[in-house]
């Protein structure tokens, strides 16, 4: 998490929407914890887009503290979806859900057009 915050600072990024596919949940959730709960990182995170991320159960008790628009994303055919989708959707207070049709775990690869359409609609709604 500190690595991500440092990389954003070095790149000159002052505000960010964090997109966290799969294993990058291992970086994203700790970063969100440091920004919103511990307040040890001064990164202006404006949104969170978890795409079938890992570590959902570990961070479930603190999801309610991540007070930014969130787009919970899974491929309809992702076998991990049933396990964590509801936890994220119910835990994140400002969440919306995108289920990408005809897509498995890497839904942004399996159905790029649907992923881009859903992502664009979310970003336009909250940040245009």
Distance between the termini: 28 Å
The mean pLDDT is 93
Low-confidence parts lasting 5 or more residues at pLDDT below 50? none
Widest beta sheet: strand line-up: 1-2-3-4
* SSE string: HEHEHEHEHH
The whole-angstrom Rg is 14 Å
Q: What percent strand?
A: 15-25%
Query: Which structural class is indicated by helix and strand composition?
Result: alpha/beta
Helix content: 40-55%
Secondary structure tally: strands: 4
Could you describe the largest sheet, including whether it forms a barrel?
Answer: 4 strands, parallel
**Number of helical elements:** 6
Using the alpha-carbon principal axes, give the shape.
Answer: globular
Question: Can you tell me about this structure?
Answer:
The structure is a single chain. With 128 residues, this protein is α/β, with parallel strands linked by helices. The model has no long low-confidence stretch (mean pLDDT 93). The protein starts with a helix and ends with a helix. The longest helix is centred in the last third of the chain and has 16 residues. The protein is globular. The chain has 6 helices and 4 strands.
